[in-house]
Amino acid sequence: MTTLATADDAHAWGAQLAPTLVAGDVIALCGNLGAGKTQITRGIVAGMGSHADVTSPTFTLVHEYVDGRLPVFHFDFYRMENAAEVIGIGWDEFFSEPGVIIVEWADMFPGLMPPSTRWFHIEALPDGSRRVTEGPLAK
User: Fold this and answer.
1) Tens of pLDDT along 14-25?
2) Phi and psi of 16, rounded to 5°?
3) Of 24, 50, 53, 129, which residue is 20 to 30 A from 11 by alpha carbon distance?
4) Do 129 and 39 form a contact (C-beta atoms < 8 A)?
């Protein structure tokens, strides 16, 4: 469990996670709106050496950042209505790419996530900080 006091801490935490990631890794970021999922993703992408401007792919559904150590494919399931819609955007095709997949709101379609997915749960605390816990999705 990690506590992140600020958005800068969330970014730094993501940047520290980046060097541990290898091609084929899937990162699931779960938490309420404003929990810090995109800020953590910004840190991961920066930690990969990318200079991309990372934004939430809520409306575009997936962003690709390919200028770092490994490509990062950043998904957001928030506006997806069903698993077929996720599959329809080419979800399965990204698993053959030599990069890292990050999914915001992955808990909406856990059945689509591979067994090796690393799940991170982000909880906003009353003092404005965030608690990040790694572990399997609660059933």
Assistant:
1) 999 999 999 999
2) -75, -30
3) 24
4) no
Alpha helices in the chain (DSSP H): 7-17, 37-47, 83-88
Report the greatest alpha carbon distance in the chain: 42
Listed by start position, the domains of the chain span 2-110
3-state helix, strand, coil in the chain (%, to 5): 30, 25, 45
Quote the CA–CA distance of 89 and 86 in Å, as a whole number: 6
Read off the tokens for 114: 């591979």
Strand order in the sheet with 2-4: 2-4, 130-134, 118-124, 26-30, 100-104, 72-76, 62-65
**Per residue in 42-84, pLDDT tens?**
999 999 999 999 988 766 778 999 999 999 999 999 989 999 9
Distance CA 100, CA 82 (A): 23
- Among 133, 132, 79, smallest CA distance to 105 is for 79
Closest CA to 106 of 126, 84, 132, 76: 76
